[in-house]
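Hey, quick one: can you model this chain's 3D structure?
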Amino acid sequence: MKEQLGASSETQSLANGSWVAEAVAQQLEAMLSAGNYDGVKSLLSPLQPVDIAQAIDTLPMILQALAFRLLNKNEAIEVYEYLDPSVQQNLLDRLRSNEVLDLVEEMSPDDRVRLFDELPAKVVRRLLAELSPEERRVTAQLLGYASETAGRLMTTEFIDLKEFLSVSQALKLVRQRATFSETIYSLYVTDKERHLTGILSLRDLVVADPGSLIGEVMTREVVNVRTDTDQEEVARAIQRYDFLALPVVDLEKRLVGIVTVDDVIDVIEQEATRDIYAAGAVQAGDEDDYFQSNLFVVARRRIVWLAVLVLANGLTTQVIAMNDEVLKQVVLLAAFIPLLIGAGGNVGAQSSTVVIRGLSTQRIQRLGLFRAVAKESLAGALLGILMAIFVVPFAWWQGEGPLVATAVGISLMAITTLAATAGASLPLLFDRMGLDPALMSAPFITTATDVAGVLIYLKTASWLLGRLA
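Sure thing. Here's the predicted structure for all 469 residues.
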């Protein structure tokens, strides 16, 4: 995304940004329907590009292209980069060929690549062929990197300096190239072969002696990532060091691009969405388009896990059938099965959520994997004891004796301890195996603890029944 170098006179706060876009969308649709195009221009003029994009997103499809055409060229490019991918594709279909080419040509390379990822291959080939040689080369380079890596995420619009330049010469160069750069606040220093040798901030450059050389004021220890670094690692690096941008180098340590913080925010949101969907046993799409999907797509994304859970719950039914004798002798035991499996499922889901989040933020490593599992196991045992304090007296009263109460109390502590241990250890096991720990989702752990919990409960009751008899 291009930098916002200045805010409009009617500045919106983050708190009311969505409300502004919603209000503008209503007025925008009414004005476009009435043909009041001058009013539309006046309405959109003081707004930020992101608010204009959100307003256009909500318009009927036939009015989206009309509203977009009323923007001036520079503003249209910025607004386009914020639009939803489906709206971007709709505009490409409705705009004239030369308008489309101008729009795609002026986009930032990283935003252009994201757009091309959403378009059919045939359309991408046609647009690539019509780009200028330089933009075609840059776009093809980024498309050549694997998806969800630093190379695919980066932009090539950055400012690099040389060590032999003076501070005054560097400032002049920054002024010349600022308009064409993604950010000017981080400046990179390269040698004649474009190897990354140093970094300095715009502030360091401004306050330095004009006669000093860049090699004298730069920092030589530069945190960087390779083009094949996973985008989650890139996001964590920027978050860890509070960078506005992170340099990307190739296998020969040559500087080839930078990843900016605005792109990282998109990555964090995308990865968090995937983890949440996985934890809820829902297959995520390529982007957060779930609420725009049709009913059959929604069902398809959910049915896989539900089918697995149905088969797994058949084991619970089988366990109950195999222990029907004890239920025939003490029918009241069946009344507490929902309580026990519900407690186990919830405790397991809580433990898995904590551990999966700890793995995602890498904070669990500070505690240690073994200590994390032990801590969750002890927490599960403590939760079982606390629940038993309330449940056992009620079970004693209902059962008019110690059998049901004792079986419920012992099983409750055993089930919650087992559920917490499983909820903590299984995601760690998946992570060690190189699989997504979020796949060890709450529904899966709930089903597993259901089967184990019913087995523990009925076997405990059977044992107690024999002892008391």
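One thing worth noting: Confidence is low (pLDDT under 50) at residues 1-15.
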